[in-house]
Amino acid sequence: MKVPYLKKLRHLFEAVPAWIAFFFFHYVLPFKVSTAFGGWVARTLGPLYHISNRARSNLRKCFPDMPDGQINKIVSEMWDNYGRLAAEYANADVFWNGKTLHNIEIQGIENLKRFQDDGKPGIIFTAHTGNWQMITLAAQSIGFDLTQMYRPANNPWVDHLMLKCQKLAVKSVITKKKGGPKDLLSLIKRGDHALLLIDQKMGEGIAVPFLGREAMTAKGVARMYINQGCPLLPARSERLHESRFRVTFYPPLEFKPKGDLNEDMYNLLLQINTMIGGWVKERPGQWLWIHRRWNDS
Description:
With 297 residues, the protein is an alpha/beta fold. The chain contains ten helices and nine strands. Helix 2 (31-45) packs antiparallel against helix 4 and helix 9 crosses helix 10.
């Protein structure tokens, strides 16, 4: 079925500003100017958009005792992070030029190296905190190329731009549509490694607490750990100041299945959600609260 004319027109109007922003961020503005400008625009205009009400609602439900002033501060920080991230996505070579890593400090590099050299396939999981693309760049700095699972944008022109930016920072991408889960399973069976962001709502997942509220959580990583013996390595990106980051690679998860698949998946995903929830609590302004992470978002 062809996309209706009006929908195509709407997609075009949505895509033009994104492409203009990419052109200026990547080709015109100096890097520090582009990130500062992106942060300023986002934190100035973002809180005014209706979608920010979802972020405020999510924060109130997760932290019912938090004052409104603190909630608004977190929403402003979230938009600042998002605006800077947009400029950083267009300039991955500033952080990694193929030889030298800049503005990224790495903790737990020994965990990543062991994960790379253990002779097994593996999944590095993370969340939408800081700038998660710094994880792939940190991995490349030791010669470790990851395949990233990518969720396509609904707008095809925006999606094309997002893929263009993704490929500035990651060598291989598979999408969640068009057989993405099967491609991921094939990748794991070949003995390769993937990076997954696993903090988004999944309609086909199972309900597992996240920040104290039941959240539909994807089962894929739990199935691969339990059924395929696939190690899971947590990785976290934190924005320290402006466009300086810390990437932390934690030891692989330790979990002993008890033989009941559904119970084992639930308990493993609870362990993962608890870890990611701790990251969010430490730096709440660096997580995307505008996600529909919960059914009542």
